Amino acid sequence: MRNALVKLCILGLVAISVTGMAADGNRPNIILCMADDLGWGCTGYNGNQVIKTPHLDQMAKEGVRFNRFYAAAPVCSPTRASCLTGRHPYRTGVFHANTGILRPEEITLAEILKPHGYAIGHFGKWHLGTFSATGKDANRGGEDHPELLNPPSEHGFDTYFSTESKVPTWDPMRVPKTFNDGASRKFGWRYIKDDQKAEAYGTYYWTPEGKASENLAGDDSRVIMDRAIPFIEGAARNKKPFLAIIWFHAPHLPCVAGPRYAEMYKDQDFKMQQYAGCITAIDDQMGRLRAKLKELGINDNTMLFFCSDNGPENGTPGDAGPYRARKRSLYEGGVRVPGLLIWPNKVKTPMVTDAPVVTSDYLPTVVDALGISMPGNMNTLDGTSMIPLLEGKTFTRPSPIGFVSSGQKTFNGRKYKLYVKGDKVELYDMEADPLEKTNVAAKYPEVVQQFQEGFEGWYASCEDSFEGKEYGTESLEKVKQKWPGSGKKGK
Questions:
Q1: Domain tally for the chain?
Q2: Phi-psi region for residue 477, left (φ > 0), alpha (ψ -120 to 50) or beta?
């Protein structure tokens, strides 16, 4: 109760400190779209010659194209926590996929915007807690772990249409009873023509009223957008600004392409048909979303972001571009992902930037765009506002971007990147060697020392945040979490 009262007081401070856009009524709408496991090289605008992404390519031509856009983690759940809090996920206790929850004491972007009259909705993959403490659902939902019950409504969202974790990318509630021709429950299968040969996949879409039961067949990205668009229409009709979080499942396994999408890639092998098909399906929905914003007359005043939560999964046709490694790695291929922004009122000329930005930057960027103050006792942020960058001004991060995952540690600056795993210490010149081919640690020991000291100070502050220096340990103890290391949960 004490935490809830403190949080209410903190958020109240936001509502009485309004300037700029929020004061003159020109509050931008915010849409944060994210694909799941989409590699840097999986889009046409980044050079893919097979996968068709015409709508994303058009966004890259018209808006901001971030060449060094980073997911805060090389796996799913932690990156999602960073998007909503502006903090590195190690502060929040979301160390890895299916680990911890977005703790109730965290102050989210949704909660900051709510006092300013924003309509707030979440659509798609949540992966920051479960939706049911009875019955089995997805990876963790059910009576075995009631402490993990943590829907978006606990974090400032007015409405949601969401799943706990992954679903098939076509007919998201169904799976074949048998597999053949290279198909598998893990990777994916050809779309199911005969429903009698299918069975329940074992997951659900949830709304504040409970399990969804209608309009769940066909393309999963379309199923998600079918809920997001009415939410946006309602906000526009009521002349309310809105925050829409649209987190697609594709191309996370299992990948299934619908008939039209499979036909587009009929000359490719089975895996590429399914993989490329579900990415093009996302692209279609991004085009549909942009067309709707224009139809409603709100396109110019809408910040529309698109990114991925991490690099491509191993064993898939996913493409990290020229970058090293893939999902689960803190080398570039695991965390450097497609990053785009369309915001005509602010970005009137197309822009391509090599400045390093990260999903933790969303929250401070939006707060800066509204011209509002952070809550008086806001938790420590790791993100930096991108507004100076968008305005063509000098954009300098106060420190390199810190990353931690599964024993890997990196400190990633504009020029140098430190990578540490166990006794391995590597330093890369990201301007001269973005592909991380030449370790220059021996050549620049002073840079290594500087980065190591900077990282350790930042890492210690993350541990302090997690272990209660900001808001106590009540939820930490409830979820039975400990700081990663020595075999503790979360590593």
A1: 1
A2: alpha
